Amino acid sequence: MTKSIYFYLFIIINFVSGCNHLFYYPDSEVRVTPDKLSLKYDEISIKTEDNENLNGWFIYSKNKEPYATILHFHGNAENITTHFMYLSWLASYGYDIISFDYRGYGKSTGKSTRDGLFIDSKSVLNWLKENSRTKDIFIFAQSLGGAVAVPAYVENPIQEVQAIILDSTFASYRTISRQKLASIWLTWPLQWPLSFLVSDNLSPIDYIKQVKIPTLFIHSTEDPVVPFESGSSLFKEAENPKEFWELNEKGHCSALVIKDDIYRRKLLNYLCMHLTQAKDKCEKNLNDNLTTYVELFPKSFYDSK
User: Fold this and answer.
1) Dihedral (Cα; 292, 276, 121, 131), 10-degree rounding
2) How far apart (Å, rounded) are the C-alpha atoms in residues 28 and 104?
3) How confident is the model at residue 261 (pLDDT cuts 50, 70, 90)?
4) Prediction pTM value
5) Is the peptide bond before 157 cis (omega within 30 degrees of 0)?
6) What is the pLDDT of residues 153-186, one digit of tens each?
7) Pairing of strands 137-142, 68-73
8) ∠278-272-296 over CA atoms, to 5°?
9) In Å, how far are 1, 124, 221, 295 from 129, measured between CA atoms?
10) Which one, of 285, 288, 283, lies nearest residue 299 by Cα?
11) pLDDT digit string (tens) for 25-60?
């Protein structure tokens, strides 16, 4: 074996050994704030059980009386100033939105670690239980956010949560590391042994069976970041009631990007169907304002899923 091969192996092993930290790519740059989108919001601060301070936004529904609150767990890069726009449009349809930064992201204190984000998520659930303006709460989690949200909810299953939506979430930290190693020619032969250097602790695949509320999975067959197989394997392990929306368009966490797209409309209907407190008002609003959507997706469509 040449010296260059030894050198590359040394770099690879050190890279993978640190892979538990390489799931996180935080920064503190401010890109967009809700007021730029004419949204009313308050900045919030949430204290964790290990004394970190999490920064977040309480974005208010444009309805005087919101239907429910959406707790948003964002993905692994940047901070809420990038991610909140993925769901901010829901404020126009009757929902409060809570978006927060994990430790080490944005203005939140601390260093990003798997155990740390687990503590953060449980702390936010406790905070929301006391501070939500609505009886009903939904969890919407993107990519890494889903991997964080599932174990946190299982360990702290507040009864106000009516459903969990997992968008492009992977099943296992170790498995997705192996898949990434397999995509590089230099690491392909070593994908199995090297992947075992990555901890599989707190992987959603080990918790998903304990989720006893409706769970919606969204994943593209052409996801370039989290392979479709990872999302579908997580879905297969989940208990009913569950639902899977399979996208064919290429993209990661892209289902709700296009304004008035089919998946935005489907999500509005899904949320409305799972309300306990304002379902009648929500259904009337959909009937009044999204008639073409109702025609496209009659109740029988959802019953068949």
Assistant:
1) 110
2) 9
3) confident
4) 0.86
5) no
6) 999 999 999 999 999 999 999 887 666 554 554 4
7) parallel
8) 140
9) 59, 9, 35, 36
10) 283
11) 999 999 999 999 999 999 999 999 999 999 999 999
Contacts of 166 (CB under 8 A, 6+ apart): 141, 146, 149, 150, 204, 215, 216, 217, 218, 231, 234
Residue listed under structure tokens 């040394």: 10
Which DSSP symbol is given to 238? S
Phi-psi region at 267: left, alpha or beta (left = phi > 0; alpha = psi -120 to 50):
alpha
Q: Tell me if 228 sits within 8 A of 250, measured CB to CB.
A: no
Inter-residue contact 136 to 160 (CB < 8 Å): yes
Which structure tokens are listed for 94?
């009757």
Q: What angle do CA 103, 109, 110 make, to 5 degrees?
A: 65
Nearest-angstrom CA–CA distance, 240 and 236: 10
Asked if residues 282 and 94 have their Cβ atoms less than 8 Å apart, the reply is: yes
Q: Where are the extended beta strands (E) located within the chain? A: 25-26, 41-47, 53-59, 68-73, 77-78, 95-100, 137-142, 161-167, 215-222, 242-250
The DSSP result for 203-221, as a single string, is -GGGTGGG--S-EEEEEEE
What is the spatial distance between Cα 139 and Cα 137, in angstroms, rounded to a whole number? 7
